[in-house]
Amino acid sequence: xxxxxxxxxxxxxxxxxxxxxxxxxxxxxxxxxxxxxxxxxxxxxxxxxxxxxxxxxxxxxxxxxxxxxxxxxxxxxxxxxxxxxxxxxxxxxxxxxxxxxxxxxxxxxxxxxxxxxxxxxxxxxxxxxxxxxxxxxxxxxxxxxxxxxxxxxxxxxxxxxxxxxxxxxxxxxxxxxxxxxxxxxxxxxxxxxxxxxxxxxxxxxxxxxxxxxxxxxxxxxxxxxxxxxxxxxxxxxxxxxxxxxxxxxxxxxxxxxxxxxxxxxxxxxxxxxxxxxxxxxxxxxxxxxxxxxxxxxxxxxxxxxxxxxxxxxxxxxxxxxxxxxxxxxxxxxxxxxxxxxxxxxxxxxxxxxxxxxxxxxxxxxxxxxxxxxxxx
Length: 376
What we know:
Layout: E1 4-9, H1 13-28, E2 32-33, E3 42-47, H2 52-63, H3 66-71, E4 76-81, H4 87-96, E5 102-104, H5 112-117, E6 123-125, E7 146-150, E8 152-153, H6 164-168, E9 172-173, H7 176-188, E10 193-197, H8 213-221, E11 228-232, H9 241-249, E12 256-258, H10 266-272, H11 278-291, E13 296-303, H12 310-323, E14 327-332, H13 350-372
Parallel strand pairs: 1-2, 1-3, 3-4, 4-5, 5-6, 7-10, 10-11, 12-13, 13-14
Antiparallel strand pairs: 8-9
Helix pairs in contact: 8-9, 9-11, 12-13
């Protein structure tokens, strides 16, 4: 009888690609993807820790498997990812859901096959040592014509609201030769879009004296083949003119840049530890627009950050109107345990955050309507 697996992924593109690696391991062991969770012999939840809502969904969906596991004791249930890289969260899952067989974090994803082999009893595998061993895993690409390619892992920025440096570790750049080889293979296999991934791609190479991000982009663009190149995510403090110039000068690059601003208030940006000002951000936007005609610019915005006044929020709205983004990913600030912002004064009520996020989304609709009518 055919063995099957089912993977549920929460969170960002990095998580999606890591689920492709988990799928690669299972495919290599003879498993096939199941169309329904109930039909799977191995069930994996690859979790996110960026916002509270994502964690709540994990607890709810994992809890719903209690009956299924009781009826089919041979099924393997695994929970991994950013949420389980937090020791307290991993231990909580282990304690309240005794039917989970394997729990592991982002730091030891490369041991997934070993964990499957050792599943003679419940396994809680916690490790704080981060490395790039996960890049050696097989993968089964599941994103159509797009091939995700990791260029680095981790983040050194320590934005006060963000859990990523704690669940992904410090910045670690992959050797450029490995990246180029992976892109070449993906192009040979027929993938038409190569998306380079990292928590802060602009920091590529800084940790190991490797080539810079702009130099890496040039090398990727020199690869023969009919394909386009995209990347995410950029941090405004590190997006340099040479990167903008490379994108502007080569048709292989999608003329799209995702540049998270998070807030239009200098006071809030400072509290967030973003290390740039509104004025600096707008100067980068001006440079992008002047060098790349018809560029598509998208962003992330957090509303309701501790201490955000109505004036601070209005400054964010004014920035949105000024830049006229092509897309906005707007979120209500979510308290993340272990971050600096968790203990900040001036926490904002849900009602205020909800009103503010809806106003940002309304502004986005208005801007899209203006652009559809030719008012750029």
